[in-house]
Design brief:
globular, mainly alpha, 2 domains, MetI-like fold
């Protein structure tokens, strides 16, 4: 039975990660055309991708969008989590459902709704700001889920004891509540940044003339240009996405052990 489970686990991992390994190998392929197996390996494509101004500008835009969306998600997600976890009011469960809903909606629906709102209702030009707002709509969910899960585990008696000892609300938040939420906030922020960094569907409808790294990759593949450089850039996106997720998983895992 144990051997069967190991075999099933290995097949599952192979199914999930074999395509990523292929991209990893192609990022070092010495030929411009994708041939398997590669006849040789080179680092030239990495140098060309690094010196490509389009790639560097797209990378900087993605970083800005990710940081901006994460900041908004931290503020709104944390406030919403406190409201739902600490207070009783009519429609509380509905609020929780509505906050989580955007991440379940198809990206194309969210993108079209945002595009119509920005361009037709508000008359706003599509810029980096609209990308940030678009990404924040689903990044809020990640922060909200992390914070509310932690708040439900933190005993309210600690806050009450702090207040009984004469601490003001801000002091209680700074000295008692915030330290207990630190790993949840960091974990939520890392996941939100990872989601924003590799988002493409919502970005397509909110970017305008801006170009994020996923949009640059999609455009280059669609036009059949710079395929070797694209493979190298894809690998960068994978690393930047995987690292925050790995750190977040480790943080939440430690909390679970404690």
């Amino acid at each position: 039975m144990r051997g069967l489970l190991r075999l099933a686990t290995g097949l599952t991992l192979a199914f999930l990660y074999t395509p990523l390994i292929v991209i990893l190998v192609y990022a070092f392929n010495e030929r411009r055309t994708a041939t398997w197996p590669p006849p040789g390996f080179t680092l030239d494509w990495w140098s060309r991708a690094f010196h490509n101004h389009g790639v560097r500008n797209a990378l900087w835009t993605s970083i800005q969008a990710g940081l901006g969306a994460t900041a908004i998600a931290l503020a709104l997600g944390t406030l919403a989590a406190f409201a739902v976890a600490r207070y009783r009011f009519f429609g509380r469960e509905s609020v929780s459902f509505l906050v989580v809903l955007p991440i379940a909606l198809p990206g194309i629906v969210t993108g079209m709704a945002l595009n119509s709102t920005f361009t037709q209702v508000l008359g706003v030009d599509l810029t980096l700001f609209t990308i940030i707002v678009g990404h924040a709509t689903f990044c809020v969910v990640v922060v909200y889920n992390n914070v509310i899960a932690r708040l439900r585990r933190v005993s309210g008696s600690l806050v009450e004891a702090s207040m009984d000892l004469g601490a003001r609300p801000w002091q209680t938040f700074r000295l008692v509540t915030l330290p207990s939420l630190t790993t949840a906030l960091v974990s939520g922020a890392l996941l939100a940044f990872a989601l924003s960094f590799d988002e493409i569907i919502v970005t397509t409808f909110t970017a305008g003339a801006q170009n994020t790294l996923p949009l640059w990759i999609f455009g280059a593949i669609r036009l059949g240009q710079q395929l070797p450089e694209v493979n190298a850039v894809v690998l960068v996106v994978l690393v930047v996405t995987i690292l925050p997720v790995a750190v977040s998983t480790r943080l939440t895992g430690r909390e679970g052990i404690q």
